[in-house]
Write a structure and sequence with these properties.
8-stranded mixed beta sheet; alpha/beta; homodimer; about 575 residues
Chain lengths: ~575, ~575
């Protein structure tokens, strides 16, 4: 028998449905209309049809509630949840997100090909549909030591064995614009498949060249002008609302009934606490309707059909015969809050709560890619001989990934440049952790605000070395040692006392614990860091971008200070 | 150097464009807006960018005219133009059609795989972008002798070597609905690619099953209800306006701003005369705007972006960096009539006229698939012994492919049932021409109206045997012999006199002559047929469907009379 035969028999009405949802007001994303109440018949994980007179042993009466396709997050790094795909799914399924386009860029920078394979394996049996894109920038630059490299051949192999669906955000946009061979080779490897963009600030002829190379979307717009520039050139606009980059309110005014079909929603990076407390795409849909007067049908299409079309996913994004039965039920079209969520035909959440057993226990046989976290924390040389009077200092700016390049007098004790919390001058160290090189990059940063103690973590975009910021060397050493002991993670220390720690044994990026426990431990670490004097809402999030050598102006990697605009390493002393 | 490098250099403004179109008001199908005048830069066959300050040796000032993407015909049988792809292109390019989704179903029923390969070869170097779909019903049924068979393995091979892009209209919709293995195998062969539908009259649970199998469009709707049924199920609505099936006026009232994105235009089958005199997609766009009040931007998207999205063609359907430079220029957005057409970056037509040398001379080395046209016309046995008094008669209905099954008394002379023009009872003969079987199906038809003489032709859907309808056997024999001599074609005869002939040596379906010559010869044949007494606007078009055993009710093939509803052969005598 053909695998489709049972579905067709249910569609024809010849055999009972596995589940019937009675009295559903279908949100039809094709026609842009809500249909009168009718019955939806399912065969296992697929929609068979909408009509009446279906037989089934399992019937749920929706009593005229709205039935809408499951939401699609058009671009997300699961790693930012600090959780496994299963625990990420536990967080987003109750929010109605049933498909995510995931870029395993972070884990790939730690363990390379194995990261992508593991993500695929760890996602395969979930009710959440995880569509992996191939990370395009592993490593980001040669000015840091990443854990691994993915070149065009790796990407082609991942596509050939159906592990990846397209190419994830092509962050090296200058490389694309200038036609660099290794970058274009990666685009060629996924030719014909969706290629996601990332071109902050690019415009005019540069943006033309970026689009001409075949890039088809962008999620890095922050101004309406940037958004319009991209829509006009045929790039899908993926509006992002991440924990650390909130563009929804700025960009929604760009959306019109005429261009809405080219707009999608994405979360990019959200902390576990944000996912649990604020939500995901559901939050963006609601805000679009309630705060920006977007027609609910348009808002829902931006969360369903539009991303399905951009990514060429003909099985999701709509409720129609043959499509995957990913379904939300809600009562208020003007403020859609999922009260039931079906994923692959199974009820997985009610009233915002995940059902027991909705997520299968993780397969213990899965080879978890630990990555390395081998740092000589016992005795690292953190001293900085004062070879000059003025130093380059990373000026952290609140709520920005961009830094200000400062030049300040060094505070010198016993011939060494030292942290000086009174001046908010903290020492920053980046310990290479992947290849036992022993590299430690040292520098200073202003704006983090610790009065004493240190924070440290192995979440440090994009190379994810062990980064620490502290008021004294002992605290830095203590925090770093705790993390090395945990095989990666986050820690807060004061002197020789560890105040908080969150082990992230999976690549130094992800916990093996439930998402609520991770959110709690993360909140605890933030509380401790703030208790040490930092005024920042999330000092760990801030720290995690201070080692990212692709975002201007001044950053610190394990190889030293990077002047991003000059794209070169520079001395600490001026 | 990477093949993209010159395009990127032009996009960046670093090297001159090969062509610049100044002062163009871009019809932006992404945003649904017309942009202020700007300059479009091309690099060879691609769009580099829209802006200003481009350098080029070749500049055309459009003086504020509209610039719109080239039109896409979402479903067409090139064979119905009776011309080669090159001459079909000569007809449609001046109309602004720059891409066609072509189903070589007719030629495939004559010569099988070679037909598809030849169509691909004959289209490759044209300015017209011909996207071939795999014919899904070769042969249509076992109740006629077709020239060839294409099974799922053939289709898979054609896809694997990039000859076809998807599966063309799946006409065996009962086979899909009932899950017949050989039909589903063809869908599986093109899984993940666009699969076009054809499900006249299907609705409710049957239509659910058809959609559930993965079919994604339909162009056979004739009523608004059918159109809405399909849109609601996620099938793209391809509105058809063919020579013999005109659905545009009936279906356009279904289109709303909310559902327009799921609607496309197609011509399916148009005679060469219609293409030259009425036009193609351009005619549908104009009529949608001028007679149905469709927003011009929506109408233009139905002719451009929408079909590009349905078929996943990311290179066409819009004017944007990197896309193919298929462009129309017109002055009146409320009545768009292309005054310039660019295809693959070359100006190919002005003011409705094809430019000299726009179409390359056909490559003489192309192996033209003649097919067979071996019919023993010298001495075929056309006599019908009168074994009863009442006969089944095909009742032709004006402007319909459906026939009425009549039962009438036979006119008997010398023990034989004979044609009786006084009763409008004409003899019909279907000569098998592909395999030298000598099969001749014989029957009678009412409604064609010849008073004397005969018409004949090798265009006879879908098997394309030699069909003839006449008032006497001699005329039938004369017409059939002329066609056999020409290796296929159309003919009109009266007694032993040939009144008109149009040789169609390519598979008995297509001429090797220029489209205007073909249109003229076709018009001449129609004129002669009408001079013999037929009141029909186009007796050849009518005849070509009288042997099609998949459209009810009564049809005649080389194997005999077919009761389509019973799906079996039946006797002539009741």
């Amino acid at each position: 028998m053909h695998p489709l035969s049972p579905l067709l028999a249910t569609a024809r009405g010849d055999t009972p449905a596995t589940l019937v949802l009675r009295n559903a007001r279908l949100v039809n994303v094709f026609t842009g209309q809500v249909q009168p109440p009718a019955d939806l018949a399912l065969h296992q994980d697929r929609v068979a049809g909408l009509g009446s007179n279906y037989q089934s042993d399992q019937v749920i009466d929706l009593a005229g509630a709205y039935l809408c396709p499951g939401y699609i997050d058009a671009h997300v790094h699961i790693e930012s949840s600090l959780c496994t795909p299963a625990q990420f799914a536990a967080a987003v399924l109750p929010r109605g997100v049933t498909t995510v386009i995931a870029d395993p860029h972070e884990l790939a920078n730690v363990v390379g090909l194995d990261a992508v394979t593991w993500m695929a394996n760890a996602s395969r049996d979930l009710p959440l549909n995880v569509v992996l894109m191939g990370p395009s920038c592993v490593p980001a630059t040669p000015m840091a030591t990443a854990g691994a490299t993915l070149d065009a051949n790796h990407l082609q192999a991942l596509y050939a064995n159906n592990t990846i669906h397209g190419l994830a955000e092509v962050m090296n946009y200058p490389g694309v614009i200038n036609g660099e061979a290794d970058v274009l080779a990666k685009l060629d490897a996924l030719k014909g498949q969706p290629i996601d963009g990332h071109s902050p600030g690019a415009n005019g002829k540069d943006l033309d060249a970026y689009a001409a190379a075949g890039v088809g979307s962008d999620h890095e717009c922050v101004t309406p002008e940037e958004a319009r520039d991209r829509l006009e050139r045929g790039l899908y606009l993926l509006i992002r609302e991440a924990t650390n980059a909130r563009n929804l309110d700025a960009l929604l005014p760009v959306v019109t009934p005429q261009n809405a079909r080219r707009v999608c929603f994405c979360t990019d990076d959200r902390t576990p606490g944000d996912l649990l407390n604020i939500g995901s795409i559901d939050h963006m849909v609601r805000r679009a309707i309630t705060h920006h007067n977007i027609d609910p049908l348009d808002a829902l299409r931006m969360a369903t059909l539009n991303p399905a079309e951009w990514f060429g996913l003909r099985q999701v994004g709509a409720i129609a015969p043959g499509r995957t039965a990913d379904l939300l039920v809600f009562d208020d079209l003007q403020n859609p809050t999922p009260k039931m969520v079906f994923a692959k035909g199974q009820l997985v959440a009610e009233d915002g709560k995940l059902l027991d057993h909705a997520i299968p226990d993780p397969d213990a046989t899965l080879g978890i890619p630990h990555g390395q976290c081998t740092v000589d924390t016992a005795n690292p040389n953190l001293t900085i001989p004062a070879t000059g009077e003025s130093i380059r200092v990373i000026g952290h700016l609140p709520d920005q990934l961009l830094t200000e390049p400062l030049t300040l007098p060094a505070t010198v004790h016993d011939g060494q440049a030292v942290a000086d919390p009174a001046r908010d001058l903290l020492k920053m160290a980046v310990f290479e952790r992947h290849h036992n090189t022993g590299n430690v990059g040292l520098g200073f940063i202003q704006g983090i605000g610790l009065k004493h103690g240190a924070i440290a973590g192995t979440v440090a975009h994009d190379h994810h070395n062990l980064v620490a910021i502290g008021a004294d060397d002992t605290s830095i050493r203590t925090a770093a040692a705790a993390i090395a002991e945990d095989g990666g993670g986050l820690a807060v220390a004061d002197g020789e006392t560890i105040l908080a720690r969150l082990p992230l044994p999976i690549g130094g990026l992800m916990s093996d614990q439930p998402v609520q426990a991770v959110a709690d431990a993360y909140a605890q670490a933030v509380t401790q860091a703030r208790a040490l004097g930092s005024p920042l809402a999330d000092p760990f999030m801030a720290m995690s971008f201070m080692a990212l050598e692709v975002i201007p102006s001044l950053k610190l990697t394990d190889l030293g200070l990077v002047d991003v605009e000059r794209f070169e390493l520079v001395d600490l002393f001026v």
